[in-house]
Amino acid sequence: MSASRALVLGAAGQLGRACMDCAPETIATQGFSRASCDVTDDVALRRVMDEVDPHIVINAAAYTAVDAAEEDRDMAEAVNADAPAMLSAMCAQRGARLVHLSTDFVFDGRSPRPYLPDSSPAPLGCYGASKWRGEQAVLAGDARHVVVRTSWVYGPGGRNFVLTMLRLMREQGTVRVVNDQIGSPTSTQGLAKICWRLADRDDARGVYHWSDDGAISWYDFACVIHDEALALGLLSAPASVEPIPTTAFPTKAQRPAYSVLDASATCRALGVVQRPWRDALRDMLRSQQQLEGTA
Predict the structure, then answer these.
(1) CA-to-CA distance for 115 and 234, rounded, in angstroms?
(2) Is residue 176 part of a domain?
(3) In terms of residue numbers, what domain contains 132?
(4) Quick one: pLDDT at residue 57?
(5) In 95-160, which ranges are continuous DSSP H helix?
(6) Tell me, what's the pLDDT at 1?
(7) Residue ranges of the chain whose pLDDT lies below 50
(8) What is the pTM of this model?
(9) DSSP H/E element including 8
(10) Contact 63/130 with Cβ under 8 angstroms?
(11) Catalytic annotation present for 258
(12) Distances in Å between the alpha carbon of 78 and those of 69, 82, 84?
């Protein structure tokens, strides 16, 4: 990789940490969390850009509280739409390459087949709409950029579906999980590697999709989390996983019923193969096992 300095924004989040962990040794990489750089603050963002003077910027900073965004619209818009616009302009001024993370929530879930990078976005709620506006700002800007859409992201030591299921299975012994929302889990480890690969490909422009391989329901995902966690000793006793329809679990924000992303173009462009989601989950749970000292 020719560039020598990189900036990771949102470095305290689960994806940001993974990007820091797998940063190429040839890159002097600095990470900033919200506490050290509020991306909605133009002055703070410009200060960090001046300090690092990066050749590469990975923007993993995002407002991801899907339901809270319905009431906290201004903050969701500031983080997910306005900040990427500012960042894109700053990258263009410095000639830095921008890798911006986005989401499957830009789609309405009504497609009968996996979404392509050029499928038409139609977000259902404030979170997805703010992320879509952030995409538009980056794509319309003059920075050398890629937008990476992903789905159902999880990693060790973070706040995500996998760890929530583990906690509830331990505390309650029974979990009820929707079985009519279909998507693809994505390990932060694999996603971070794709971000760095795209950062290294200056000929890669526009929108790319990435997830682990396979389309499942949240219920399917929870069942396998249970089985794998039990086998690893992360659960001391079996729990019950019960399927329910989305209508039995009302939320402030509507979720897409189907949000599988077609990553075939990314695979072709980078010469990579998507990993089966269950294999990636097993590795993440092993990492979680080490964090908890239960190995």
Answers:
(1) 35
(2) no
(3) 5-158+184-213+259-276
(4) 98
(5) 126-140
(6) 42
(7) 1-3
(8) 0.95
(9) strand 5-9
(10) yes
(11) no
(12) 11, 5, 9
**Nearest 10 degrees: CA dihedral of 134, 135, 136, 139?**
130
CB atoms within 10 A of CB 112: 5
- Amino acid identity, residue 69? A
Q: Given 127, 154, 208, 258, which residue is catalytic?
A: 127
Q: What is the CATH number of the domain that holds 40?
A: 3.40.50.720
Confidence (pLDDT) at 2: 46
Angle formed by the axes of helices 161-172 and 277-292, nearest 10°: 60
Split into its structural domains, the chain has a count of 1
Give pLDDT, residue 3: 47
Q: In what order do the strands lie in the sheet with 28-32?
A: 28-32, 5-9, 56-59, 97-103, 144-150, 206-209
DSSP H helices, the chain, are 14-21, 42-52, 73-77, 83-94, 126-140, 161-172, 188-199, 218-232, 264-270, 277-292
Name the residue among 290, 259, 283, 246 with its Cα closest to residue 116. 259
The reported pLDDT for the residue numbered 294 is: 58
- Confidence at residue 16, expressed as pLDDT on a 0 to 100 scale: 97
DSSP 245: -
Q: Are 59 and 134 in contact (CB under 8 A)?
A: no
Residue 120 has phi, psi (to 5 degrees) of -80, 120
Does 36 reside within a domain?
A: yes
